[in-house]
Design goal:
6-stranded mixed β-sheet; 2 domains; mainly beta; 3 helices; two-stranded antiparallel sheet; Barwin-like endoglucanases
Length: 291
């Protein structure tokens, strides 16, 4: 299925059900029954995507319906039942217990029911919404010598850095940097910076740069790109840097490891390590060789 290359004949919706594969059941948009109003009609012609066809007695449209196929909009659940039969025909969010879209979680979140805005544990900015509470008080921190945190606004680490995956490597580095057909597409580690930051630091496209945090330092080739837009805050310019995962000291696609820079912070609910945003510094040239 992943090698299918059958485009839509009607290109306007652009769901391309024969091009590659999306799961579950090759649906391209989850909860797509919500593209129709409670009575099962498209909200507008421009938004027509999935709708109820009374003559056929089923949901039809440009995607595989993410809803019970023959459940009409006026379906009422029985007094006693289980699973999907307890959701009425106007409740499109079938993975929720009541079939409704939730603005907040009434139970189960350690920072719920409606989390507010917190700055990341490391940020160049002070929390303007809640100055008395800079970061999420429920986040799990690890105070130890090899996991030092940067203070908010620390001038030694003035830049925001974010990590991300590459489409060409699809998944984590351990699995993909050993595969020659993926390594050929993205053969070596790099970091992305804006033209403005490159000019400020004297960095040329393709040259080596060194990134540092209180945890460690890495080196990579610089990709100077307009993708990394400088941010403006109260007349102050905040530069951001992007560094992909995937690369390591072994395998075919090699490069320094992003985790060398990140701090260990756990999300309060999933307890997953959060390394999507923190602060760092950058300079032109390779890192120092230490004995």
């Amino acid at each position: 299925m992943a090698q299918n290359r059958v485009p839509d004949t009607n290109w306007v919706p652009g769901s391309h059900l024969g091009w590659g594969y999306a799961w579950p059941s090759n649906r391209r948009i989850m909860y797509n029954r919500a593209s129709a109003d409670p009575e099962g009609n498209p909200w507008s012609e421009r938004k027509r995507y999935i709708w109820w066809d009374a003559e056929k007695g089923r949901w039809v449209g440009y995607d595989n319906p993410d809803f019970t196929l023959n459940k009409p909009p006026d379906y009422k659940p029985p007094d006693k039942g289980s699973g999907d039969e307890c959701l009425d025909g106007k409740s499109p969010f079938i993975m929720m217990a009541d079939g409704k879209g939730w603005l907040y979680a009434p139970a189960g979140l350690k920072d719920g029911p409606l989390p507010t805005h917190y700055e990341p544990v490391e940020s160049p900015l002070i929390n303007r919404i809640y100055p008395a509470q800079q970061t999420n008080p429920a986040a799990k921190l690890f105070h130890r010598p090899d996991n030092l945190y940067h203070a908010p606004g620390d001038p030694a680490y003035p830049y925001v850095i974010t990590t991300y995956r590459l489409t060409e490597h699809h998944t984590g580095g351990v699995m993909t940097r050993w595969l020659p057909w993926l390594a050929e597409l993205q053969p070596h580690g790099f970091v992305e910076i804006s033209p403005e930051l490159a000019a400020e630091k004297g960095i040329q496209h393709g040259e080596w740069v060194t990134l540092t945090t209180a945890r460690g330092e890495v080196e990579a080739r610089a990709v100077v790109t307009d993708r990394m837009l400088p941010l403006s805050f109260d007349g102050r310019v905040i530069h951001q840097i992007g560094m992909p995962w995937h690369f390591g000291y072994k395998g075919i696609a090699r490069g320094d490891v992003a985790n060398t820079l990140t701090s260990i912070v756990e999300d309060p609910n999933s307890r997953i390590h959060e390394g999507k945003v923190f602060t760092c510094n950058i300079r032109a040239g390779r890192k120092e060789v230490r004995a």
